[in-house]
Amino acid sequence: MSALSVAAQAAYSRPTPNVLSPRAAEYDLLGRVTRRLSDGWRKRETDLAGLMAAVDENERVWSTLAQEVADPANALPSELRAKLFYLYEFARHHGQLVRQGKASAEILVEINTAVMRGLRGQVPA
């Protein structure tokens, strides 16, 4: 067996890397969009398009989450599902205000951060 075939066999026989759990994937997704919102808000004077793109992305994330929690097969408690759906509605409405220059994106960052803490099990006392 050549060194190349030994290396190939070793590479292909390695176990696949760990796949993120749904909770970890949601956390990572919220983390990315939250960073973009925060950066977009901070740089709004010089990169308004970046802020608008971040607000749009945030709404797409929340829209997807809303579809998930609205599904009757969703295993989350109904009270939590209702709260998450409300947050979607708030994010959608507030995002429109940010686009119109009537509101700050900071509350969207705070909401996402709070949800991320919940996903990590860091619920405030």
How far is the first residue's CA from the last residue's CA? 62 Å
Low-pLDDT residue spans: 2-8
Report the order of strands and helices: HHHHH
Tally of alpha and pi helices: 5
Q: Whole-number radius of gyration? A: 20 Å
Structure description:
By secondary structure, the protein is mostly helical. It has one domain. Helix content is 73%, strand content 0%. It has five helices and no strands. α2 (22-42) runs antiparallel to α3, α2 (22-42) runs antiparallel to α5 and α3 (48-70) packs antiparallel against α4 (78-99). The chain is globular and about 45 Å long.
Summarize the structure.
The protein is mainly α.
Keywords:
single chain; globular; cell projection; 125 residues; mainly alpha
Write the layout of secondary structure elements.
Layout (H helix, E strand, L loop, with lengths): L2 H11 L8 H21 L5 H23 L7 H22 L6 H14 L6
Organism: Fuscibacter oryzae
Protein name: Flagellar biosynthesis regulator FlaF
Pfam family, one: FlaF
